[in-house]
Amino acid sequence: MGDEPVMATNDDASECKRGAVQLGYWTDNYIPYFVRHIERKAPEINRGYFARIKAVDNFIQKFINRAGSNAQIINFGAGFDTLYWRLKDEGIVISGYVELDFPTVTSKKCYTIKRNKPLLDRIYEQDGEVRFSSTDMHSGNFHCLGVDLRNIQQIKEKLQQAEIKFDKPTLFIAECVLVYIESEWVNRLLQWLSSAFSTGFFINYEMCNMNDTFGDIMMGNLRARGCNLAGISNCKNLDTQKSRFIDNGWSGAKAWDMVEVYHSIEPAERARIEKIEFLDEQELLIQLFQHYCICIGWLGNDFADFEIGM
């Protein structure tokens, strides 16, 4: 089976996001370029994606507010993520933005960007020049690069091509990515990042509390689709999520399950999305939320005070 089922999780996630956006959970003008097909998902899935998007965006905004225009973003396993364009729409200026994913995924993304003028125009606005290869795209401050995240040397080379500065404040994002990589390789990646960058902040969205019946069912479903959860040992609980950062040279880490995250969202915003679809099974939503988390890690002390509150 190889890596194909893992790559297919990008298509699934993108379809879920497109469906939730269409229903009005949040606004994303760019996801329709990457996803044509929409399949109606269960309300608890849509609420799960809403909470995930809100939580990740919350920390991204906190990081950019603190780091300013010096900020760099490196998005691991970015898939069809549209964050770069959404930040542009908000008028946010940062020093550099790099997406890393399997070459098969980045080649599709590069092709989509090339074919859709609104996507390309937003890149041209700032940079005036965009260079494509079959799997990579370079512009002045946006780079979409094909790489195997298990290959640290390859990552180093790609980041050098993207002119990433190791002394600038850097945000690392991984959403359901590390769990598909052997723990040994994740540890090497986190160790290298903590030694190479002087100041940084990592947002990791992933499974947690997997040592129960519900977790077994989740793992069974993923394995049935051919997804080998090679890094699942770090998803036992919130402590294993945090210790992964601490053990690999990061200055500190915090973690919250998605129940806590969901309740940290402004009550008015929660009330708005809860009216979009009737949710029959509150219990199922809570179970889902108990099995996903946001974990943050930081290098240096610049971002040590960040909390989940929105």
Automatic annotation (TrEMBL):
Source superkingdom: Eukaryota
Catalytic activity annotation: [phosphatase 2A protein]-C-terminal L-leucine + S-adenosyl-L-methionine = [phosphatase 2A protein]-C-terminal L-leucine methyl ester + S-adenosyl-L-homocysteine
One Gene Ontology term of the molecular function aspect: protein C-terminal leucine carboxyl O-methyltransferase activity
Entry binding sites for S-adenosyl-L-methionine: 52, 77, 148-149, 175
Record-linked InterPro entries: LCMT1 (IPR016651), Ppm1/Ppm2/Tcmp (IPR007213), SAM-dependent_MTases_sf (IPR029063)
BP GO annotations: methylation; regulation of signal transduction
Keywords per UniProt: Methyltransferase, S-adenosyl-L-methionine, Transferase
Enzyme Commission (EC) number: 2.1.1.233
GO CC annotations on file: cytosol
Function according to Swiss-Prot or TrEMBL: Methylates the carboxyl group of the C-terminal leucine residue of protein phosphatase 2A catalytic subunits to form alpha-leucine ester residues.
Family of the protein in this entry: Belongs to the methyltransferase superfamily. LCMT family.
Identification of the protein by name: Leucine carboxyl methyltransferase 1
Native source species: Ceutorhynchus assimilis (cabbage seed weevil)
